[in-house]
Design goal:
With 150 residues, this protein is mainly α. It has helices at residues 4-10, 12-22, 58-80, 87-100, 102-105, 109-116, 120-128, 131-135, 137-149, and strands spanning 25-30, 36-39, 42-43. It has a single domain (4-149), classed as Lysozyme (Orthogonal Bundle), CATH 1.10.530. 25% of the residues are buried.
Length: 150
């Protein structure tokens, strides 16, 4: 997972699912928590130099998505690679990192504990027993569905 080629091929389905879950906008909008966002759920930061309400090209926003996805995979590798997780467990954590950032994902201590113990039902219950679920229930249920079917 350390090369761009592997990231592009190994997680092709995950990228498609993240894009579907995030939706797409070629100009900035406020997400359900009130944060300025663009493209496929990219949280706009000052350093991005993105002009609000300006339309951006699909290519620019695809590149931004690739950068964000690569950052999520890098954060996953730094924090979870040594656990030798199954693909569905990796994808779950990578999508969580993509959506909310690694610092917030690391607070999901019980989810991580139950992943390590291979207790799928408990992982799912803990996901649903969170503020994250209250804020984005459809997304969490989608992640649970994909996590459980693999």
């Amino acid at each position: 997972m350390d090369t761009n080629t592997n990231i592009k091929t190994v997680f092709k389905g995950l990228k498609k699912r993240i894009k579907s879950n995030e939706g797409y906008s070629d100009k900035s909008y406020r997400d359900q928590l009130g944060f300025q966002t663009i493209g496929y759920g990219h949280l706009i930061k000052e350093k991005d130099k993105i002009i609000l309400n300006k339309n951006y090209s699909k290519k620019y926003l695809e590149d931004l998505f690739e950068k964000d996805f690569k950052n999520a995979v890098t954060a996953f590798n730094k924090n979870f690679k040594k656990l030798f997780l199954k693909k569905n467990e990796q994808e779950l954590l990578i999508e969580m990192i993509y959506q909310m950032g690694v610092k917030k994902v690391l607070r999901f201590k019980k989810v991580i504990f139950y992943i390590k113990k291979n207790k799928k039902n408990m992982v799912c219950l803990e996901m649903m027993n969170s503020l994250w679920y209250k804020q984005t229930p459809k997304r969490v249920l989608n992640l649970i569905y994909n996590f459980r079917k693999n």
